[in-house]
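subagent[fold] <- orchestrator: predict structure for attached chain, return tokens only, no commentary.
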Amino acid sequence: MENLQLLWMGLETACSLPNLISAFFGAIIGLVVGAMPGIGSLSGVALLLPLTFKMNPTTAIIGLAALYYSNMYGGSFSAILLNIPGDSPAVMTALDGYPLARSGRAGAALSTAICSSFFGGTIGIIILTISGPILAKWGLAFGPAELTLLILFAMTSIGWLLGENPSAGLVATAIGVMLATIGVDRCLGQERFSFGSVNLFSGVSFIPLVIGMFGFSQVIDMVVNRITYSSAEIQKVTLKQSMLKGKELKRITPTAIRTGLIGTIVGVMPGAGATAASFISYIMEKRINKNREQIGKGALEGVAAAEAANNAAAAGAFAPLLTLGIPGGGTTAVLLGGLMMWGLRPGPLLFKENPDFVWGLISSMYIGNIICLLISFACIPLMMKVVKVPSAVMVPVISVVCVIGTYTVNNNMFDVYLMIVMGILAYFMKIAKIPAAPLLLAFVLTPMFESYVRQAFDISDGSFGIFVGSNISKTLLALTVLFCLVPVVMGFIKKEKTSVDSAAIEN
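subagent[fold] -> orchestrator:
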């Protein structure tokens, strides 16, 4: 009850004209930044932070926070329409969103992404409001050992992501692990697999990799196979037709709620972030959803799972930031720097000493989430014009977007060459029916896995006992073993059933 009273007090702060304007423009900038490949929320917040130095701290942080969570909305636009994820959490959105766009359901895919983003963000904010401090302390219970097992759990789920072709998954995962190990060892500082190239000392950048594998590979596919975008069905789509029907909304709501809860929990964990939340939630949904056979081929549930999770994770990341002063990722680290600059020290005392600031920020997230919802829907007619562009024009446009999005990350032509190589690799992987998603999953999770494993061994002096030292570790380890055994057992049962059926037919 006390939290609700404080929230109402914060709502008065958030509804002041300067704060509303800040949230509005932050949401718009975040949507634009999210839709532009290669920029991301970290760059957006970092670039705007100096402009807020002389602003009121509450007004400034409301605008920057709005940019952060609205970025998750924007990332889905380019992922669905162009198969180019605007940011890393939108990678999973592209798996189902782009096939839906190609089949003439771009409007439905965009509406699903927007609604799910709103559901997930709202769930995350509600949980932050009710139990932020408790959730933050629970997140701290995840030490290096627990985070290692969590990532291992996610990586063992790659087989579920692939369905019936585990060998292709192993190949894709192996490629992802190898690419992730290129560069200077984070712990020992030793050069690995760079072959003397200065450009590879810092490793393979994620942006050239994802743009190449999703965007440029599509360009190659369109040129080689002469794929045409435009169709009469797509061109006639209007905003009204893009709105989800009651039946479709009913389909995605349980998915959005489930993955919103998972995303919030993952977002609270330091270092996990929206990308991991999106991956884990998508994989879980593909396993438990009754329409799981269609997820990955163009299902609304796949879009809903990815978008609800990453938006919920963005809201969940504020729990450890505000209550403990621990940033969950790069963007929240910049926000932490901003708070320190304004003389605000995050932690338990922040809620007592600066309640207007804390609850004003939390209240503004409710308002900002609604603003993002309305602006995103208003953008659909504009975005739908993208699918009307003929392939003869789309190919050079996507190519330019790929090159610019890649180059602007480090202002280095090597990244552009790397993007082209990754695009060619992805094209041949597609021909060989090797999916790109497990590669990206392994690439994202491997550095985190390596760091946490080494930290765990440093703490325990090389003892494996640390991985069973807590109830959380034991639970995660048991789930990992169970999830590894289930596909094997199910495959054996299916094989035995087939043998019995064949014998019955022969008799």
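orchestrator: received. Logging for downstream: The radius of gyration is 23 Å. The chain has one domain: 2-493.
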